[in-house]
Design goal:
Shape: globular
CATH architecture: Alpha-Beta Complex
Structural class: alpha/beta
CATH topology: Spore Coat Polysaccharide Biosynthesis Protein SpsA, Chain A
Distance between the termini: 39 Å
Helix content: 25-40%
Strand content: 15-25%
Radius of gyration: 19 Å
Number of helices: 9
CATH class: Alpha Beta
């Protein structure tokens, strides 16, 4: 802890320490609990959900969840899972479902404080096009009306395994999720874009965590800044496609705009890893 705080201005020491210890209630010795940027890393078993719920109970905030179900999706399962994830003390939730098949979305009965908005979107020929256009779509909706409707926004895919009891521990100003792949491969095999001609490029030797584009979130103002990052459009104009598309640009942004909280891979586990484990 002393080493992490060495170069940090003294006036922010107390704020950082209070934030860290208010979240982390059980010290695990098998995982990293704080990032080099002094943000808490949330792992199962490292916090007291009752304490966090009590802190947020008096806060009347609204959460928005944006997800894309384009091309082939099991709509009933995807939507039921989506609406199931955000609960606990997060009472008011707007679900924004972007789909190229709005007619296939089944009718669902939701709690009064949870609302589902079905938004038609273009059916792109390639999944890469869907990925690369998501940030533009999200930023346009934030600018037009979401900023008046919700306080925090989650962007998430519908095909990754999550904890059933996800709650207010994921709420913060800017939150990144550590990729589950980073914990199954050697450190030097992470997938940063290294080509200097790409706006997503991270110089060799730089980088700390590899973040999943499948699940990121934050306050409306911070997510708007993130989605307005012009790297994607500038690369496209120059005929460049980053190594992992939108995710490469997300990692470039979060390297230089540090998250205020990180979620462990436990919170968003890639189903492909589960299949690989079962087959092995």
């Amino acid at each position: 802890m002393d080493k992490l705080l060495h170069n940090c201005p003294k006036e922010v020491h107390m704020h950082l320490l209070l934030k860290f210890f208010s979240l982390i209630s059980c010290r695990r010795t098998d995982v990293l609990l704080m990032s080099p940027g002094l943000a808490p890393i949330v792992w199962e078993g490292t916090f007291n959900r009752d304490i966090l719920n009590a802190q947020y109970r008096q806060k009347n905030f609204v959460v928005g969840v944006a997800t894309f179900a384009v091309k082939k999706y099991d709509f009933p399962c995807a939507i039921q899972d989506l609406c199931h994830y955000a609960y606990g003390q997060i009472k008011v939730v707007n679900f924004y479902l972007f789909t190229d098949h709005p007619e296939k979305v089944p009718s669902m009965k939701l709690a009064p404080e949870k609302r589902l908005f079905i938004i038609p979107v273009q059916n792109y020929s390639w999944w890469q096009d869907i990925s690369m256009n998501r940030m533009d779509i999200i930023s346009n909706h934030i600018r037009s009306h979401w900023r008046y409707e919700v306080d925090y926004l989650y962007s998430m895919d519908t095909n990754v395994q999550m904890f059933e009891h996800i709650g207010v521990e994921i709420v913060d100003t800017l939150v990144g999720t550590i990729s589950s792949w980073q914990y199954t491969k050697p450190w030097d095999s992470n997938s940063y874009e290294r080509r200097p001609e790409s706006r997503a490029a991270i110089p060799s030797g730089e980088g700390d965590f590899y973040y999943a584009a499948s699940f990121y979130r934050g306050s409306m103002s911070e997510i708007y800044k993130l989605t307005c990052f012009k790297g994607v459009t500038e690369d496209r104009a120059n005929g460049i496609e980053a190594k992992w598309h939108e995710e490469s640009h997300l990692n470039k942004y979060l390297l230089y705009h540090k998250p205020t909280r990180l979620l462990s891979p436990e919170y968003y586990w890639d189903e492909e890893l589960i299949r690989s484990h079962n087959q092995g």
